[in-house]
């Protein structure tokens, strides 16, 4: 009995550490004021954030999963024809091949092609993005990213809300997924209990108990 | 009493099992259902002034080929008619769109402005099984059971917008 | 009507006979404990991987330009419910390996590798090895930063051989490395071949090995927790319904935990850095293998010499393979073997500690601790022949009464 408890606790603690909260692995922490965090986490700000993104960021950055392309690509007449053929979200190989010159000229001015931001929210998380967009040089010294949003923390938070909306499912979809999760788990538990009762009864009948 | 209680339990386990199987199948069926992108009502704009008279341009709408037909002013056509469903629908239009899929078995018909075979006037001819259609897509000979489908379309000046409600409201 | 069709089918298919002989007349010890259910759970985890994988293949594109988007856009955003299938496949891989590890440790605890079951153990070892290869090749497919750099490191491991004193001159390691990648760099050819391996070759090998593993288990019967071989005629309970329903309940619990992660906690199974498309010019800041390889990684890392690290890592795997021959004691099951129990605890704790050390930043302290736990890890295997000799003596002194 003691052995069972010992191994169970050891196993659970082990998986808690490696799967859920690895207190030993290196972490980077970035702070974000709670009021701006609220703005960034609110899906309703995504629409405004999109406008702000187009004004402030889309001259260099693309959000391909939302059909936002850098200004230079946007100005290229090929874009419209390609979108008619392939749909609004262009396949990456087509995009990179057709707009190679535009992308290369951006590479010449910034040292590298400004990254596509379709999944950046999932990679970096809101706290990092908030600090980085506000003061790029402080977070990543030597970066080519200009401090366009410095002194505008609320607008920055709205842009983050937009980036979140591109990566994460919408609140309605999220609620649907949560219900699905609860129903699935509830189903399995009920099924488990029923099988257990059924087994008890069968064993009693067979005299195996 | 004992047996009936066991029966209820058996039914509960069995019924819940069936429910679970349906629950597993549901997402699988959903995954295999047509993707939203291909179902989305795309719009295609065509500048009809770019198309010469009595010519046909093929464009893609919802992944299907669509003929955009340009007829000359005062076009007269005295060919064979067995029904005039499309001709009525497209009456008075000098440019219009037809879904370029033969209603027999899905081939793409060819535009023959000089005529083909026994028909000495402009027709659509389907090479697969020899179906013939009038310039408005009404079937006039061969196996096709009905006229070509007409997509919803709208005319704005020189622009023909396929996929938007206009002189044709819905796919007919 | 249905009954008649069923009878027609059964008279020809003989399925009820098969069921009777394989499930009902098959007798198992009555006192099987919870760890015996890990085998069934692993089978179910394998089935889940196969089914979810089949659907992922429908939308995944094995092309270095479009792979990332096919996963993160088409699968995660475009096709309804495809996110669920990806979550199931990603979490499922981790759960599969976790269950396999628990299964291995349960096997060691109950001495399930002893005569006549050595071959069952060896086949199981190869299942584990092929499973690791499957997991590694699958990890490359999303073509994110972690996929890419994880594979860069993996394909560099064979080059450790080249830092060996004499055979290093032959550059065998580099040849292997280039051969694995299909060129000097990780590119389309690498992705294509790992895709093929992941969806066809490795799963087929796994299916074959698992089938053989099952056959061997049935051929020798199952061990019992107290180490006694049961007399199948007199004692033992029918596998169905006694064990099947019990394991059914365990399975429901397992699946409930699994689906909790699938729906609510995918952060670890879909790590953030892998949402960054692969960039051959930038290594991510923290790069460590997946948790199931961290113990080997820690062993590899804590030994200062590259070649010796590689040797140690291979030795650790090899020791696991020849475990049935290291332990030749007549006693079975840890319940009867206090010395073995102590060493088993040492093994469990050092494997866990090595895994956690593997996830930490490489500092001198971590390297030192890694070395210590590597030694304790190996000490389990070294102690086995010694324990066996001691137990053999005692056993003979007591007149060879068997196990109880």
How many beta-strand segments of chain C? 2
At CATH level 2, the architecture of the largest domain in chain C is Up-down Bundle
- What best-fitting shape of chain C do the alpha-carbon axes yield? globular
Low-confidence stretches of chain A: none
Low-pLDDT segments of chain C: none
Under CATH, the homologous superfamily of the largest domain in chain C reads: Cytochrome Bc1 Complex, Chain C
Q: What structural category arises from helix and sheet content of chain A?
A: mainly alpha
What composes the largest sheet of chain C?
2 strands, antiparallel
Order of helices and strands of chain C: HHEHHHHHHHEHHHHHH
SS element count, helices of chain C = 15
Radius of gyration of chain A using CA atoms only: 25 Å
Percent helix of chain C = 55-70%
The largest β sheet of chain A comes out as:
none
Under CATH, the topology of the largest domain in chain C is which?
Answer: Cytochrome Bc1 Complex, Chain C
Distance between the termini of chain A: 21 Å
Widest sheet: strand ordering of chain C: 1-2
- Report the portion of residues of chain A in β strands: under 5%
The end-to-end distance of chain C, rounded to whole angstroms, is 55 Å
Tally of domains of chain C: 2
The assigned CATH architecture of the largest domain in chain A is Orthogonal Bundle
Tell me the domain tally of chain A: 2
